[in-house]
Amino acid sequence: xxxxxxxxxERDRASGYHRPLYAAALVRMVVVLAVFGAxxxxxxxxxxxxxxxxxxxxxxLAAVGVATLPLDLWRGLYRERRFGLSTQTLSGWLADRAxxxxxxxxxxxxxxxxxxxxxxxxxxxxxxxxxxxLALFVLLMSFVAPVVLEPLFNRFRPLEDARLAxxxxxxxxxxxxxxxxxxxxxxxxxxxxxNAYVSGLGPTxxxxxxxxxxxxxxxxxxxxxVAHELGHRRxxxxxxxxxxxxxxxxxxxxxxxxxxxxxxPGDFPLAALLFSGLELAGLPVIAAVSRRWERAADRCSLxxxxxxxxxxxxxxxxxRKNLSDLSPPRLAYLMLFTHPTPPERLALARR
Length: 351
What we know:
The protein is mainly alpha-helical. It has one domain (about 10-155, about 220-350). Helices cover about 70% and strands about 5% of the residues. The protein starts with 7 loop residues before the first helix and ends with a helix.
């Protein structure tokens, strides 16, 4: 199953890169849970219920960021450099980290403060109000993230090659999913990896191609990757993912109500522990659904282009450039793999 496409040396190198990262992910989870657990024994007050809620959430999330910084620095920068995957400086990585932490803290504090405000405003009906509000927040973020959050980390420009841009738009029309924008992201200032993705809903929908993929110069393979992203659009995977997120938001509120009754500002660490538990329990389901969508998008890319050779070239190149794990441990595959392995994708093409 794809064994002829990758040498044993490539398989060993990919395995050597990923195995410590799986262990690091487990250690990180333990650290995060330990921080949440430690804060359940502490208290904060004096700013009013909503102010206490926002401050408490911000403090807990900031503590998690500090506690996980050394491990994240190792796995996100130094290990990436060792394997030739990072082009970032330390200052660049820290700047990205600070922006990411700031976004997480602001959003987390705002959501928790809003929840406590609803508890006080609607003491009997707050679960229904909070479930609706959190679900709508997830929907809003699907529209807003591509135009507000993504530009915090990358600069985007329209694809300058008018001929290629026209052919990609024609491909979108052929797929029955007209695309508002085809953009190029300046990923090369961070990484040597290659990628493309689809994001946004309605007026914010776009296909984004990393400049590292564009630099490969293999137009059939590029079209194949874009066709894959159009497959996600045709399958309404972004919308379905948003609906799953909205459903998860409702479930979180119901679990919070069942576990805590009427939450107080200082209950944020407990709420975070509950969220982490739900997230961990849902990982296998989310990964399985995502792999199914990826296979559907792979089939769509083959249908749209009719180019099996380009499919093979594209996915072999992606696996090598991104140092994909070619033979992951079964548990890691079930819990973490949102995409089929490269050998699985190549087997699909050959069938």
